[in-house]
Amino acid sequence: MASTSSSARPVKLAIVGGGAAGMFAAAVAAERHIPCVLIERKARLGSKVLMTANGRCNFTKDISPDDFLRDVGECSKWVAQAVRECPPRQIIKGFKSLNVQLRRMPDGRMFPADGKSATIVHAFGDLLRDESVPILTNCPVTGVVQSQDGGFVVKTANFDIVAENVLLATGGVSYPKTGSVGDGQNFARALGHKLVPYRPGLIGLETSDRRITSLAGRRFEDGRAKVMDETGRTVFDYRGEVDCESFGLSGAAIYNSQRYIEHANMKDYSIEVWFAHERLTFRNLKPRPVKEAIVTIGGVSLDDVDPRTMESRKVKGLYFAGEVLDIDGPTGGYNLTLAFATARKAVASLRNGAMSCASAMPASRHIRAAWNSPDGACDTI
User: Fold this and answer.
1) Exposed, middle or buried: residue 183 (CB in 10 Å: 0-12, 13-18, 19+)?
2) Half-sphere exposure of 230 (CA within 13 A, CB side)
3) Rounded to 5 degrees, what are φ and ψ at 137?
4) CB atoms < 10 A from the CB of 360, how many?
5) How many angstroms separate the CA atoms of 10 and 13, rounded?
6) In CATH, what number does 204-288 get?
7) Distance CA 242, CA 379 (A)
8) Which of 9, 11, 75, 125 could staple 327 via S-S, CB 3.0–4.6 A?
9) 179-218 pLDDT, tens per residue?
10) What is the pTM of this model?
């Protein structure tokens, strides 16, 4: 354990990771008058958010919490309370309150109206600026250790930060150039948490079939993919985009099929792919590497984290949000929603009386309460 000076003034909350979960957590903390600092290893916030949906940022899906949880599948019971307290329509309401113009697709997917992910990142940036939230960019965290007198020391190459609570929101291990390099999982493991092995989620499938590779670059909106088990029984069927690539197949129908195959741990399967006038069947296709995946399957074990609070069951005052955890959803706005909902749940659950911190920060003319309805009250919106 690290020692801290008795004269050091700890910050109430240190948020490690400036992606979707970290930005949302900082916004919620600011709205609740909780002193916090946001620490990001890259030179700007939201690097991976800027890439989502080919730079358009499908930030949620306008469906009910029940439908959302049904679609999420495996981890739905664990995330249910967080999602019900911050459902898609509350997230939509929040961005509207930040004067972000939105566009709803026929299937409920939500985008900024201008089709630019930067609009979402800038909305967070403007709110955090208005609330005077300190942001440290180009600042990789090198370690998180418990201090001898309670709380934590967040270590960087050049200085340490003393914090009463720490929220790890560092993402998964896909697209490492955006800053998702697994450091949050490593910090968690050093503090005694189990890690579930990483696997690719929502990733393309490889085939050298010329009927596919000769069409590289073509996108077919009205595609379909069906997954069959070793007996030929259909176990998953999804209608959506199919893209032909030089390496094989991608697009929403392929991504969600691959996620199903990965979660079901299928070793012997067939996938039937429909696009244009083609209907092709393949067996046991290899997924692309995890570093190219839209989402990481695996991470901090859910057994070590309390879903009612997002707090560690092993280290008091340590919280988790987003893809650092072993949670994931299908493509279509689900994973950003999971990041937002778990981040809000963590901040709303801070130890030592989160809401009692209101007097620690001056009231702001810019304060908004879009994501801070009374806990549980969002369900009927």
Assistant:
1) buried
2) 5
3) -105, 165
4) 10
5) 9
6) 2.40.30
7) 34
8) 75
9) 999 999 999 999 999 999 999 999 999 999 999 999 999 9
10) 0.93
CA distance 121 to 23: 8
Q: How many residues does the chain have?
A: 381
CATH superfamily of 11-200+292-380: FAD/NAD(P)-binding domain (3.50.50.60)
Tell me the C-alpha distance between 371 and 122, whole Å: 17
With bands split at pLDDT 50, 70 and 90, how would you rate the model's confidence at 374?
A: very low
Beta-sheet pairing, 195-201 with 11-16: unpaired
For the chain, give every domain's residue range: 11-200+292-380, 204-288
Cβ atoms within 10 Å, residue 224: 18
Buried b (16+ CB within 10 A) or exposed e, 9-47: ebbbbbbbbbbbbbbbbbbbbbbbbbbbbbbbbbeebbb
How far is residue 145's CA from residue 2's CA, in Å, rounded to a whole number? Answer: 7
Distance CA 13, CA 366 (A): 21
Sole residue written with tokens 């990771």:
17
